[in-house]
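Hi V.,

You were right to ask for the full record rather than a summary. Here it is.
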Amino acid sequence: MNPFHYLHLEQPEVDIRGSQVALYARFNPKKKSSHVLAISLLDGRWKKIVEQPQSRIDESLSTLNPRSRNVLENPFFVFIIYLTTALEWWINALHSFDEQLIAHEKRLQKELDTNDKSSSTVYGDMNRALHAMSAHLHRYGSELSSTEDTISDLIIRHGKVFGTVTDAASSVAQIEVSLAEAKGQVRAAETIRLELEQKTQNILALLFNRIQLSTDKVMIDNGQSMQGIMVASQAEATSSRMIANAQQRLTEDMKEDSVAMKTIAVLTMFFLPGTSFAAILATPFFATNSWMTHAARFWLWFVLTVPSTGLAILYYKYWRNSRDPGHKEKENPQSNSHDLEMNPVNGNAVTSDDTVNGNAR
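Predicted structure:
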């Protein structure tokens, strides 16, 4: 994303690297001689491109003729060669930008048509690439503006050194025309840059719109999934409620059965001693005894039955309490509990047997 780093464009397969070239010229009007010092900081891996301005200067000097001698004696022709070469580099870089933007547009349209699950990854990569291109295009604007200011300054300095001439065929006039043309090319490059920057913003807007649509679709799918989960949870809650109702009915039925069985057991316990003693007294062992068979001895059955029945009932209560210690407390919730009082000072609970002296003991 750093606009001062190099930029790799995938589709044209080029790297755009920023660099600087410094020119220092000295002109001797008496001897009609010029000395120019060029300091190039261009990347040495592109030897052909780096040496292009020097090759053009050597070619111009090798084809020197009397008509162009006056032009070549002017040191500003070196600036013109470097400027036109730099503008050529600018145009090539902007053309590569245009190719890359077209590739991004085609890829985005393809993703719009396919709309598969891998589109989110493609959108993320494209978003980063477009933001990097936008940052570099913005920086190119300041550099082109600086280049235009440099050309304007060269035009002013050229006028101060050689003055104003009216002969269009003179070398001075030709240099001025060339500098003006270079300035016009810079403005044209700036226009192309603005168009590419606007195009980048349009693609970014389309990309953001598509990302928003994808996000909305994901949210809709999640909402539908949540709705399905809620419906399933509601059905599960209904089933759980039905099971709970069935368990409640089963518990009530079991309770009714328990009450019935308890009633039968109590009735059996009440009548069993009497029937047992009646059966025992009716055995032949007692039937042959005249004292036992007399009607006046009927009280003997009551004497044996009533205490036995009472003992059986007491034993049943004791057995029930021993098996269910909480049964007595359920029947008598206040029998084994102390009354609680709240301490008015600190709110601590104390028993009725305690004495409140500001704090609970």
